Amino acid sequence: MGTVSYDWAAVRVVEAGSYPVVDTDQKTCYDNLGSIPCPGPGEPFYGQDATYPNVETSYTDNGDGTITDNITGLMWVKARGSKVTWDDAVAGASVDRTGGYEDWRMPSIKELYSLFLHSGVNGADYMSTTGFVPFIDTDYFDFKYGSGVGGERVIDCQDWSGTEYVSTTQHDQPTVFGINFADGRSKGYKKFLPPTWTEKNVLYVRYVRGNSEYGKNNFQNNNDGTISDLATGLMWSEYDSSEGLNWEQALAWVQAKNAENYLGYSDWRLPNIKELHSIVDYTRSPEKTSSAAINTDYFKCSTITNEAGQEDYPYFWSGTVLVDGPSREGAYIPFGRAMAYLDNVWQDVHGAGSQKSDVMIGDPANFPEGRGPQGDAVRIYNYVRLVRDI
């Protein structure tokens, strides 16, 4: 019987209820320090993002200020616009008439995340765009870095989503999830700015229309330790690794599970960051629902004790690597609080369901106050949830 192949780039119609996970566009393989030839089965670092092909991006510029995503069925405003407050971003959707359409809306964080391309690169200096490559397709979407002048870094050019965090961050501040297409991260952004928490934060916004079902999971419990998402065509392990692993160990753990035909399958993989993002449940958080940010009707999630001594839920590795200046970091998602040591206290600064990156080797004890300008927690030993194609 011959092999059937599909030209995914030619896909034009998305059925109602579908949630296609578009590829990350990561084509390079990495070890803990830099790029390497992509390993084969049984070799160290086998099974990372670039190992597996996925549905490639496919856009159409409609010539009227709009861009159609031919895979997801979403239509986007092409223009970058200006920075606005959260309130003005929300209000602006109903009066936007780009392309002659009257049904623009704020994108959910999952809709906005569909545009993320992890072929982007961070430069070595956040005050200069030298070495930077945007994490969005600039052949289709207008994009603008921060000025790099005064207190504005080149990465200070984030986008609001329409998804508010169900909890609060950093001294009980109302928070909205957004994406930074300059530095390859997704976080909760405060509606107001320190130190007074009265000045309104301003970020960019890009409106969307079409496929209102995008981002809605359709889980099915297969009653064999696996959970299928009929919206994405992905099957997940009901249980996670139950232990923290560094990135190389996480990849090796997946290979070991395949060798034992875990749950009856031998084609499990470490999910890429967009696949992992697809199962975040943004209606849940440790503070709001006393659970991980995942649908607990279907998934079991290990508990941990976080840096503040609270019962919490782990960070989970993806197979995707962030190129951050001279370093290489594994991309992860906190399904519990996204902790940072800020203002001399450990607290949830970025929100459960954010997407960040961590160094892949070393001793977490060497970072007692986190790292980076916000003191982000460094764990290195994160958890794994397996995925495969249905």
From TrEMBL:
InterPro entries: Lcl_C
Pfam families: Lcl_C
Occurrences of domain Lcl C-terminal (ranges): 65-208, 225-325
Protein's UniProt name: DUF1566 domain-containing protein
